[in-house]
Fold each of these.
Amino acid sequence: MKRPQIHIENYEEYVIDFIENSLTTELNDAMVSFLNLHPNIAEEVMSFRNIQMIPDQSVIYPEVESLMKKPRSTFFFLKRFLVAATVLALIGVGLYTISNTSNDIVTDEILVEDESTTIKESIPQVSTADAEPIETVKEESIQKSNAVTVAKEEKVRLTSNALQITKQQEVKQVDTEETPQQTEPKVIQQIDIENIGPQRPKPIQPELLAAIEEIPTLIAPLEEKETEVELVFTITDPAYNNRQMLRQSRITGTLAFANTTVALLPTFLNKNSKIINSKK
Amino acid sequence: MTVQEYNTIVKLYSDNVYRYILKSTGNPIESKDIMQNVFLKLWQNRNKVEVEYAKGLLFRMAKQNIIDTYRSNTSRRERENIANQNLSTNGNRYDTKQLLDQAFDQLKPEEKTIVLLRDYEGYSYEEIGNILEIPLSSVKVNIFRARKKLQSLLITLENEVS
């Protein structure tokens, strides 16, 4: 069995154990042999005082409480639960309201739109007698086999008794040079003017009230003129006494006003409408 | 680690950790700051720390904070010099414990740590190795050197006083 070697390079590893008498017999003998060979180190080790630091038990940390954490109380969890329940309830009420609104007016789309999503439209001419389509930029396509159906455009048509929003589609054949076939415009939304006309109950919505008050000054100079305008429609729901906004749309274009049209406009316009250019 | 376990650790070890920090820094204000940092870190990492390793971790974090403070404290050497001057001028009023404290103050933070972990907390050399993340042989060598230095400083101070 090989005898353990203690030499000048590693003796420090064993000094502490040597002083504390915790070396094995073999290592202890090796250490004694090493010290016999190095009297200067032996003197150092023999004079070594195993000085110990004694902790002062009177020293205590004075701010223990500041380190402690309070367990979360039942109230904390109750509060969180109540907040979550309230949020869920609000979401539920909101969804219920939207659902009911949609059922009343339209069947296939959510009508309440943010102004940021409002589509740009233009109307070359609007009158109750002869309604013209209003161009829009909304375009989507659906591909089925080799035929592509393009939802070409969404149009707003103002007729004598209704405001119609229609979507025209054309079908293109991908593999052939055939001319796209246009389908009949499909009415995706219709709002009867009688319901939102001047005869309806007076709107309560402050914004709409302000709009209606401002409309005469806006419309009056437009009569019998071709006027380029930017109109902002705010269509409200009479079923909810007009407090429920159904749709907000921005339209730019030229209007040829007839008296009847002017009578209807206050219903649709709000105070964000402005005249871009007016000419006879 | 639950809140209750954390609070238990605070109750059990805050005094020990504070004594170690205070002895290492010699400054109660710095020591309290380090205490706050150390226990804040423990709280932030409570989900990763096993209760049985918390005490060792506290000392390890405290050691690192002490070293950082020591390195950033440029006036420390000046304070030590002032302390030494006071010792020299009022030498006869100091007993052995006070001389030992003065000698201890002149050790490096790493040397203080290893001595205090052994003497204050009674950790075995293996445990000290685990806390400081150094090999057992290094622990024994370092503690021998630290004690030898402490002895040398103490002899010097005793000679100055006498």
Note: The helical segments of chain B are 3-25, 28-44, 54-72, 76-89, 96-105, 109-119, 125-132, 136-161.
Amino acid sequence: MNESSSEQLSIIQTKGTLDWAYPVFILASTAAAMDKKVELFFTFYGLNCLLKDTRGLKVSPLGNPGMVMKSPVGPNWLRAVDWNKVLPGLVWTLPGAAMLATWGFKKQMLMEGQVPVEELRALCLELGVSMTACQMTIDLMGYQQSDFIEPISFSGAATYFANTPKTQSLFI
Amino acid sequence: MPVIKLKKALTQYPDESCVFLLSLTDTGGMKDVPAFCRQQQLEWVLQQEQPFIEFKVWRKHNVFSGERGGGSK
């Protein structure tokens, strides 16, 4: 391992929501495009980002005060309203609120020229990003290795650290 | 996205003489494309800013011998 730390990036992903999946895959794909060696380590809820079935990747304004929630459709005055600032938090506990927020988020991302998250992670793999799922949390949460996309590896934190001793790490 | 699409186009057309034309709707590309080019040792020129951003990118040793488009959004 003789690459300098500026040529490597590693991200530890612990979050399992759509708004946390995007930044990790965007940073990883961009770094890989710039010839950095990229290692992603997924643990706890971050495992959601690697599942074949991505229906579990959602976003909700509930307990997420930083989220900007604007309508992707409608007249301009309506699209300017940030519903997460205007409506009381209690509204987001209503059935269907997370589904609506997820729909709006996905639509907004596509309008910004981004691709769906499944495509983005496939792009990461194509660009040579290596992804590791934490075996301990897979067992803890009752997943099977077959639930995950390929090609990824399965190991524990020690293997991850042994593989990335000098790497600049982001913990997300 | 523009940087990733440019990288894919660069891999797809490894020929030194290729010139890539980028059209972007992403205004972040104004800084990202030049930064990417600096890091990847590419030459670039900003062709226009309106109605959309357009860059011409080529490899350092090439002197515009031939043109080939590699579009990117």
Note: Chain A is about 35% helix and 15% strand.
